[in-house]
Amino acid sequence: MHPSRYVALTAVAGLSFLAASSRPAQAQISVNIGPAPACPYGYYETAPYGCAPYGYYGPEWFTGGVFIGAGPWFHGPANFHGHVDNHFHPANGYKGPVPHPGDKVEAGREHPPANFHGNEVHDGHGGKR
Length: 129
Description:
Helix content is 15%, strand content 8%. It has 129 residues and is largely without helices or strands. The protein has one domain (36-129). It is elongated and about 90 Å long.
């Protein structure tokens, strides 16, 4: 093969490579997290968003007895910070009873407990303060 053909083939290969790499990559990511869990006392603000037990959230997490949300479903103000009692979180060793989605509030267990004592402040999206 003539040396000029090597140069020509190399040039064509190089231009093809440059043309292919100059196209912007287009990626689409769609995450559908679905509806918020219907838990009687709210749900944990971190995945897998299981139902939180009575006593986990303080009064600022409820409006008219309705949980304002946590995690991706949070509906509070942008600068919201609320108290939680992290003793009721499984990541801290809690193994007590927890309600299931769709359960109703037990009689006498209104939102929140009258003697609530939070030990952490969270922002509604799983962040601690």
